């Protein structure tokens, strides 16, 4: 970035993008300097870039969070899931937390956030998320998932285990 002040533009995604995420269309804010990088050869607008731009926008315009919450929840979930699959559990936890905040009743978002916490060495916090999840309506599969995260977290605490290393599939 060039250090000069930057403004924002808002991009309209293709209708299919909103349909893929299952959210209503909303203009995506992007800083002009980020747009310039995106427009360079090989540049592209990724889910992580869009999510980061929305986060930056709502930090400057907190009154607009509600409008961006559904899209941010989906984008953050997508980014967090991708990072978890790549073994970056700490990075996954950061993005999945944003998704869980945006969608606090989405068992999938909250569950994957808890698992990312457990696998990034934040077992106590994972147990807190699992405890809060028990107040949600959980089907048998979700209850079993949270129980497995609790078991993993308790075992890590008992063993004083270090976080999983990137690339470790467990």
- The order of strands across the largest sheet is 1-2
| Count of runs of 4 or more consecutive helical residues | 8
Helix-strand topology string: EHEHHHHHHH
- CATH H-level superfamily: Tetratricopeptide repeat domain
Report the span from N to C terminus: 38 Å
User: How is the CATH topology named?
Assistant: Serine Threonine Protein Phosphatase 5, Tetratricopeptide repeat
**Total number of strands:** 2
* Spans of at least 5 consecutive residues with low confidence: none
Q: Roughly what fraction of the amino acids lie in strands?
A: under 5%
The computed structural class is: mainly alpha
Largest sheet: 2 strands, antiparallel
Q: How confident is the prediction overall: mean pLDDT?
A: 91
User: Which descriptor suits the 3D outline?
Assistant: elongated
Rg of Cα set:
18 Å
- Summed up, the domain count is 1
Q: Specify the CATH class.
A: Mainly Alpha
CATH architecture: Alpha Horseshoe
Helix content: 55-70%
